[in-house]
Amino acid sequence: MKVEDYDFSKFKNSTKAKQALVRLLQNAHAGEKAAANAYWGHARSLFIWNKEERKQIIKIYEDELHHRRRLFDFLQSLDSKPRLIREIGMWCVGASIAILSIIGTWFIPMYGAGQLESTNIGEYEVAARLALLAGREELIEELLVFAEVEWDHEDFFRKKVEDHWVTRYYPLWNKPARRDSIRSLFNSFQADTKQ
Ligand SMILES: [Fe+2]
Ligand SMILES: [Fe+2]
User: Fold this and answer.
1) Contacts 24+ apart (CB under 8 A), 142-145
2) Closest-approaching ligand to the CA atom of 117
3) Based on the number of CB atoms within 10 Å of its own CB, is 189 exposed (0-12), middle (13-18) or buried (19 or more)?
4) Cystine design at 133: which of 3, 17, 145, 193 (Cβ 3.0–4.6 Å)?
């Protein structure tokens, strides 16, 4: 998801913004489980020899579980809860990726993780704007922090694969905007909304 492609004009009404926020947080809650499952497998990959690298992936796994716990709290505060069907589906997606990560190459799970993380940044940037439009300002700061953490995850995987020989033939995904643009673009959006 890219924040610049999202049409916020449909959500001037706070009820509609809240509905869109709930749906997005439900998707993110399930997506975090898929990511956590995938990293659980990735940390056990047969192709990771470097202990430090393994530790860093476990740290990312823990970040995703933390996001998931907080998303559950956010959904409760919005009188909602995760969607069971989505949860089951994404759990299976994550478990499948975990198996592929354990037995796959070093490169493919690293590349796939980076590409996935690049979409997670935008997801939380959109969520922070929807929280603003829904009048739920108390959620904004943490959602922006989540976007920044996803930016750090993307940066970690990008740095892992960018010099790999495969990228000469299979280019990297698009580089996200600078980390500090997460805050500056949100502040501009907030200022425009108040006008
Ligand atoms: Fe996350
Ligand atoms: Fe992440």
Assistant:
1) 142/70, 142/74, 144/182, 144/183, 144/186
2) 2
3) middle
4) 17
pLDDT tens-digit series, residues 9-43: 999 889 999 999 999 999 999 999 999 999 999 99
Residue 195: per-residue pLDDT: 77
Q: In this structure, how many other beta carbons lie within 10 angstroms of the beta carbon of residue 110?
A: 25
Residue with tokens 């020989």: 165
Q: How far is the CA of 50 from the centre of ligand 1 (A)?
A: 23
**Which ligand is closest to the CA of 31, given by its number?**
1
How far apart are alpha carbons 17 and 105 in whole angstroms?
Answer: 42
Indicate the average pLDDT of the chain. 95
Determine the distance separating the centroid of ligand 1 and the alpha carbon of 64, expressed in angstroms: 4
Q: What is the largest CA-CA distance in the chain?
A: 55
Region 133-159: mean pLDDT is 97
CB neighbours of 62 closer than 8 A, spacing ≥ 6? none
- Whether domain 11-190 has CATH 1.20.1260.10: yes
